[in-house]
């Protein structure tokens, strides 16, 4: 049971990181990204391929972060002249292209067989039996660091300018903000965080194949962000846990209703997940928390931030 | 009833506050560093044209705002579809001209990206207020401040202290500006929650955070309650007295009469005439353009 909880919490950490990324790109900067799975794949494969080549875990992770951020910047630059809906389509197409490359460039990615035996960082030092717990601690620490860095950005003049571009890019430009640069930076920041999440994914499972980087990752990320409250990272922490409880908790359904066949239970599970999300959105249509807003007149008010 | 009383209260507040020679968000135009301003016109529009497909919205416009002494309020009037907003859009970089040039303080700004104009001292507002709704009133103002260290990611983490100090100073400046237009009590409210007139005031105040030389106002009085209209007029007058130039598009001719020394009249993409308000409204061609009569 402890092992199961550790695994679940590790998944939650990864979901939180992906959610953080989407919260910057979509929640703060208003740039929709339907291709999260593809960027996640880029991060995972970069870390995996480099680690297999004998590069140490830290360097491989940094490379995964840098490459995913760079590709994010390029994708956002390529679509910047298009309206927002086209960014959605383009990112979706990017995600599919990544999957096709991963499946077909066998010399690099192993194709549909994936990459196995990805070396886990520091595994020799920690020892096998404690490794899962160590990895969870590492993930939680990284979540904390990313949270702190993003929080600083969100509360800064940069974050303010980013939200201004989301609200009305013409006004932001009129007020002297370089909209293009802000959008590219926001997308790249998100990309860096997804790259980190992807690298952790590769290390955790030590096996990856193209099928893992499919649309459901993107869908879960949007679920966590919407439940948590678009733009709020604090809300996201709760949102990611809530979504995970819905996804995992409903697995135990068949234990409580033994008269259902496995297939019926599986279908009912999905229905319950949907119903749970609808209930949350009925009672909290804007999510569980609100995005950061500067408050100068009554800073002690409890709902003053995030 | 309640809202009218509040608006009146607003206007009273403003009168009281604006009597003070308070700390200003806007530095008066001194022009000591450069050549005497009288040499260089503030804004020159030369043979400007804009065509959308077959439609010529602006058909060759010349317009000249003198550089000295500053603090002039120029009106731009004309019937619907005359091309006023298109002209404003081109001057402010929202749209590109098909032909012609725009010089601002002697520099050709026709090809500059929109966000570079603010630094040159040129800023505009919009006919339908474009508040940044989810940002608070105060954040709307803070955003407009130029040259913020905290807008650069590297600087943000390397010079946290400087960013904090700049923010504190900016909040003080913004506070003074908001007090002056009686919006300080709403500083923490999202801009989307303001009334139409308050949004116009916010837009104007926000524009002034950039310390502009010239402010282009697109229908500042549209959708504003009468009591608030007076507040707006007084605010604009007060700013002009401090040396800020305005170019104003306005349909409400009472507002134009109250504010503008000089008025340009546009019709069908051209400048019909220019002169004092009394001159142009006495002009038969202007009456014809407005009423669509054939003389």
Offer a quick outline of the entry.
By secondary structure, chain A is mostly helical. Chain A has 14 helices and no strands. Chain B has two domains: 3-27 and 36-131 and 195-291, Rossmann fold; 133-193, no CATH class.
Strand content of chain B: 15-25%
- Determine the oligomeric state from the structure: heterodimer
Beta strands of chain B, count: 10
The CATH architecture category of the largest domain in chain B equals: 3-Layer(aba) Sandwich
Structure annotation, total helices of chain B: 11
Query: How would you sum up the major sheet of chain A?
Result: none
What is the strand content of chain A? Answer: under 5%
Q: What is the CATH superfamily label of the largest domain in chain B? A: P-loop containing nucleotide triphosphate hydrolases
- Largest inter-chain contact set: A-B, 31 and 43 residues
Based on Cα principal axes, name the global outline of chain A. Answer: globular
What can you tell me about this protein's structure?
The complex is a heterodimer of chains A (306) and B (295). Chain A has 306 residues and is mainly alpha-helical. Helices cover 74% and strands 0% of the residues of chain A. Chain A contains 14 helices and no strands. Chain A has helices at 2-28, 36-52, 57-79, 84-104, 106-109, 123-126, 128-155, 157-167, 169-174, 179-205, 215-228, 233-249, 253-256, 262-283. The longest helix of chain A has 28 residues, at 128-155. The relative contact order of chain A is 0.17. Chain B is α/β, with parallel strands linked by helices and 295 residues long. Chain B has two domains: 3-27 and 36-131 and 195-291, P-loop containing nucleotide triphosphate hydrolases (Rossmann fold); 133-193, no CATH class. Chain B has helices at residues 2-18, 84-91, 114-120, 137-144, 153-158, 160-180, 196-208, 226-241, 253-259, 277-282, 284-291, and strands at residues 43-52, 55-65, 73-77, 99-104, 107-108, 122-124, 214-218, 245-249, 262-267, 270-275. A six-stranded mixed sheet of chain B has the order 6-7-8-3-9-10, sandwiched between helices. In chain B, strands 2-1-4-5 form a four-stranded antiparallel sheet, covered by helices on one side. In chain B, helix 1 packs parallel to helix 8 and helix 4 (137-144) packs parallel to helix 7. The termini of chain B are far apart. Mean pLDDT of chain B is 84; it is low at 1-35. Chain A binds chain B through residues 152-153, 156-158, 160-161, 163-164, 166-168, 170-179, 185, 189, 291, 293-298, and chain B through 92-94, 113-119, 123-124, 126, 130, 132-136, 138-139, 142-144, 146, 148-153, 156-157, 163, 166-167, 171, 187-188, 190, 206-207, 210.
């Amino acid at each position: 049971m402890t092992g199961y909880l550790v695994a679940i919490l590790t998944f939650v950490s990864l979901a939180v990181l992906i959610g953080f990324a989407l919260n910057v790109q979509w929640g703060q900067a208003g740039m929709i990204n339907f291709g999260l799975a593809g960027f996640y794949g880029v991060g995972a494969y970069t870390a995996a391929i480099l680690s297999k080549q004998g590069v140490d875990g830290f360097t491989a992770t940094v490379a995964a972060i840098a490459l995913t951020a760079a590709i994010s910047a390029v994708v956002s630059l390529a679509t910047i002249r298009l309206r927002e809906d086209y960014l959605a389509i383009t990112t979706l197409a990017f995600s599919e292209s990544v999957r096709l490359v991963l499946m077909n460039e066998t010399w690099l990615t192993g194709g549909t067989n994936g990459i196995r035996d990805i070396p886990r960082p520091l595994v020799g030092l920690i020892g096998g039996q404690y490794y899962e717990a160590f990895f969870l601690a590492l993930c939680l620490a990284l979540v904390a660091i990313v949270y702190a860095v993003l929080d600083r950005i969100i509360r800064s003049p940069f974050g303010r300018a980013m939200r201004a571009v989301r609200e009305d890019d013409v006004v932001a430009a009129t007020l002297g903000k370089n909209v293009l640069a802000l959008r590219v930076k926001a997308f790249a920041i998100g990309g860096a965080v997804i790259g980190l999440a992807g690298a952790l994914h590769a290390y955790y499972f030590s096996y990856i194949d193209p099928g893992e980087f499919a649309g459901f990752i993107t869908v879960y990320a949007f679920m966590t962000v919407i439940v948590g409250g678009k733009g709020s990272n604090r809300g996201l922490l709760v949102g990611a846990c809530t979504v995970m409880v819905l996804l995992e908790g409903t697995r135990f359904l068949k234990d409580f209703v033994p008269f259902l066949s496995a297939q019926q239970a599986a279908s009912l599970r999905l229905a319950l997940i949907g119903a749970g999300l609808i209930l949350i959105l009925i009672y909290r249509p804007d999510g569980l928390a609100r995005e950061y807003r500067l408050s100068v007149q009554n800073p002690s008010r409890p709902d003053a931030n995030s | 009833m309640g809202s009218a009383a509040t608006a009146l209260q607003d206007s009273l507040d403003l009168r009281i506050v604006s009597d003070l020679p308070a700390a200003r968000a806007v530095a008066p135009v001194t022009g000591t560093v450069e050549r005497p301003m009288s040499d260089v016109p503030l804004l020159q529009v030369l043979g400007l044209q804009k065509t959308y497909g077959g439609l010529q919205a602006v058909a060759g416009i010349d317009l000249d705002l003198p550089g000295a002494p500053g603090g002039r309020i120029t009106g731009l009037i004309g019937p619907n579809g005359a091309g006023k907003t298109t002209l404003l859009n081109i001057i402010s970089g929202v749209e590109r001209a098909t032909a012609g040039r725009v010089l601002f303080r002697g520099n050709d700004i026709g090809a500059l990206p929109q966000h570079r104009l603010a630094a040159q001292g040129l800023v505009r507002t919009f006919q339908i207020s474009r508040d940044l709704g989810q940002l608070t009133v105060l954040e709307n103002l803070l955003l407009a401040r130029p040259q913020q260290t905290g807008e650069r990611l590297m600087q943000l983490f390397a010079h946290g202290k400087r960013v904090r100090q700049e923010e504190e100073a900016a909040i003080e400046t913004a506070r003074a500006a908001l007090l002056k237009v009686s919006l300080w009590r709403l500083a923490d409210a999202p801009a989307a929650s303001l009334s139409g007139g308050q949004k116009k005031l916010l837009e104007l105040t926000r524009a002034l955070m950039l310390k502009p030389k010239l402010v282009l106002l697109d229908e500042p009085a549209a959708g504003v309650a009468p009591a608030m209209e007076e507040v707006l007029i007084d605010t604009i007058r007060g700013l002009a007295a401090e040396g800020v130039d305005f170019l104003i598009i306005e349909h409400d001719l009472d507002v134009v009469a109250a504010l503008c020394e000089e008025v340009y009249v546009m019709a069908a993409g051209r400048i019909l005439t220019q002169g004092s308000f009394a001159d142009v409204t006495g002009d038969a061609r202007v009456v014809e353009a407005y009423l669509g009569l054939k003389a």
